[in-house]
Design a protein that fits this description.
The protein is built from two helices and no strands. By secondary structure, the protein is mainly alpha-helical. It comes from Homo sapiens.
Length: 54
């Protein structure tokens, strides 16, 4: 079964190992970026006035 072990070793070289801490830190960075871009927007209320009626 040396072939199977060799294939697993090559696969680990191709895929980076990511820890849960890394994932959580990246998630926090993405949330902070979204807050900076979206500011105080509210997904429930439109920020545009309703001047035109269709």
């Amino acid at each position: 079964m040396a072939g199977a072990e060799g294939a697993a070793g090559r696969q680990s070289e191709l895929e980076p190992v990511v820890s849960l801490v890394d994932v959580l830190e990246e998630d926090e960075e993405l949330e902070n970026e979204a807050c900076a871009v979206l500011g105080g927007s509210d997904s429930e209320k439109c920020s545009y006035s309703q001047k035109f009626s269709l």
